[in-house]
Amino acid sequence: MTTTLLRGRLLSFRRAPLSLADSESYIYETDGGLLIEDGIIAAVGAYDDIKAKAPEDASEIDHRPHLIMPGLIDTHLHFPQMQVIASYAANLLEWLNTYTFPEECRFVESAHAQRIATHFYDELIRHGTTTAVAYCSVHKTSADAYFAEALRRNMRMVGGKVMMDRNAPQGLLDTPQMGYDETRQVIADWHGKGRNHVAITPRFAITSTPAQMEATAALAREFPDLHIQTHLSENHDEIKFTCELYPEATDYTDIYARYGLLGPKSLFGHAIHLSEREADAMSETGAIAVHCPTSNLFLGSGLFPLKALSRREKPVRIGVATDIGGGSSYSMLRTMDEAYKIQQLLGERLNPLDSYYYMTLGNAEALSLADKIGTLELGTDADLVVLNAAATPAMALKMEVVKTLPEELFLLQTMGDDRAVAETYVAGVAMKNGL
Ligand code: GUN
Ligand code: ZN
User: Fold this and answer.
1) How do residues 182-194 score in pLDDT, each as one tens digit?
2) Is 201's C-beta closer than 6 angstroms to any atom of ligand 1?
3) Neighbour-count burial of 211, counting CB atoms closer than 10 A to its CB (0-12 exposed, 13-18 middle, 19+ buried)
């Protein structure tokens, strides 16, 4: 058995914070100890107590004065879009057609997919992200590369082979039968292997015919425990085109509802421009709206009403994500900085406790995985991030006047990026300097 004892300031959420003053919503241990046995959190508390319990041969790593938190979680990004980032386009549909679809065609080559998979996981680790939910490309080769690399690094990852059978280049199209068969094959090959989770992944209604949506519905019925991910209500032109393609549906959300795709394991990327009816339908089924702030700003898609959706009488469950490569940073810290600014523009406040809750326990709850990730609870996976709020000269200077934990968290969110990630642990193994 490998046993590791970490020392540092520990921070973990118990539940969503009600306000910035809600110190009951989290556990903060100023001189904390965290004991890891075979990749699982075996003891957690005050350092002196944990040290007394630890076996003598435990290897000890002192991260003081840094913060040790649950690893960050990214609930929506695109593995084949690492070389799409920073593509200059007027809007979503132009960006997809001009840059994104041609780039994804390259993932038919497994050598290319494997090369990008290595970089993909390197970037996640560098940015302190230990679990992510990704779209692969339409090609099974891309899903194979994605899950093989996750297995090699023993990371808890969710992902899916994209299903798309129209309105894209020939090299990116499957058929209803192929999408169904290959998704089944990806599930058989990878779901439950290591810490892998396969998600049913119709790209969005524009690129799936009604026949393919039927095939997706069949998969959702056959595999009710799997996550489902797709895109919803991101851009006004997209919404208009989608509703023209499905004239019988009441609205965009209703298209997915008609195929049985709304439920507590369904992740809808963006969901910016929902009507009250659509928000009600999301709320009633427990579906999740995944906020992708850097992408929404970069593509000019709109301002996601995070606070308004979460305080409704029928609240909508929310996740947060980078949406690489529509998004512009792999960092969940940068992501929450932009989320904060979007709420500012809407006249709302997103406090730093909210932000760190969303990046950890909130996203774990959005994935129905809070029993495994997103906290420092006993018996959960030892996926951790170690954050240094004085990582750059400018941050260190500001830290001289920081007095409270929320102030420190806000500084990290406002100025931090991968430089603030001192270490990333995956199932108890320090990964920032490679496997
Ligand atoms: N809608 C359908 N596909 C995509 C994609 O790859 N990125 C974004 N941002 N929106 C989409
Ligand atoms: Zn996306």
Assistant:
1) 999 999 999 999 9
2) no
3) middle
